[in-house]
Amino acid sequence: MDYKVLLVILSVTAAILAIANNIFNIREKIKKWREKNKKKKFKSSFVENNPDFEFRTGYISNSAPGVCKLTISIINRSQEIKYINMVSYNFQIPNDNRYLPPCQILRQGQFPKRLENGEPFHIQEDFQNILFNTLYEYWQKNVKVYATCRSTVEDHLMSNFVEYDELVKRLIPLRVEYENLAHDLAKKFNALNRDIEVSLWQLQHFDRITVHLTKQLQQNNIPVLQFLIQNHGITWKDNSSWPQIYRELETKKIPPKILIGYLKNLVDN
Question: Pick from 223, 214, 235: which is nearest to 269 by CA?
Answer without folding.
Answer: 223
